[in-house]
Amino acid sequence: MPEVGGNGGSGYQGARRASTLARMRATMASASACSSATLCSLWAVKGAIDWPLLLLSAVLGLTAIASLGLIMGAWTLTMARHFWSVGDAVAGAMYLFSGAIFPLSVLPAWLRWIGFLLPVTYWLEATRRALLGDRVASFDTLAFLSDQALLAILAGFAAVLLVVSAYFYRWALHTSKEKGLLDMESGY
């Protein structure tokens, strides 16, 4: 009898892996559709959209975020259970500290530095500048950086996170196999 998903897993783990792969495919398809719809609607907008800045920041930002996702996914490989909250915690922190809700300047100085360590902060600022053009002056979050500096920082994040995620994933997979965590069931 063929295994569920054909991914080499057995029983519950095989079904779980197949379910995870199906969710990942659905998420990627939905993100792709949303991105396409957004780009089509932006294409219809007549205005001063800086397309090179928008597209380049999108590629670099997505690379950085996908690399962070791979790091988080690899980290959860080293946990037997209780890994569901990792993604929510990191997403919540990024949402709060990246300038997505409010500018970083309204955060206390002792918390503001967290936003400067997140690639999403620079991606959002580049996207704002690409879409709003001269009107972005009202957002003072990263006004001291030029567009090229934003892209350079974002490219640095993407490159470093891509390399780190590849090595961290290999290490986490090896560690989880050695400890038998991939098929471990905890009763807690």
Give start-end ranges of low-pLDDT stretches: 1-9
Overall tally of domains: 2
- The overall average pLDDT, rounded, is 80
Number of strands: 0
Query: Order of helices and strands, N to C?
Result: HHHHHH
Q: Any idea what the radius of gyration is? A: 20 Å
The profile of the biggest β sheet is:
none
Derived structural class: mainly alpha
Shape descriptor: globular
Helix content: 55-70%
Head-to-tail CA distance between termini? 32 Å
Plain-language structure description:
- The protein has 188 residues and is mostly helical.
- It folds into 2 domains: 1-46; 49-179, no CATH class.
- It is built from 6 helices and no strands.
- The protein has helices at 11-44, 51-77, 84-97, 109-116, 119-132, 147-179.
- Helix 2 (51-77) runs antiparallel to helix 5, helix 2 runs parallel beside helix 6 (147-179) and helix 5 runs antiparallel to helix 6 (147-179).
- The relative contact order is 0.14.
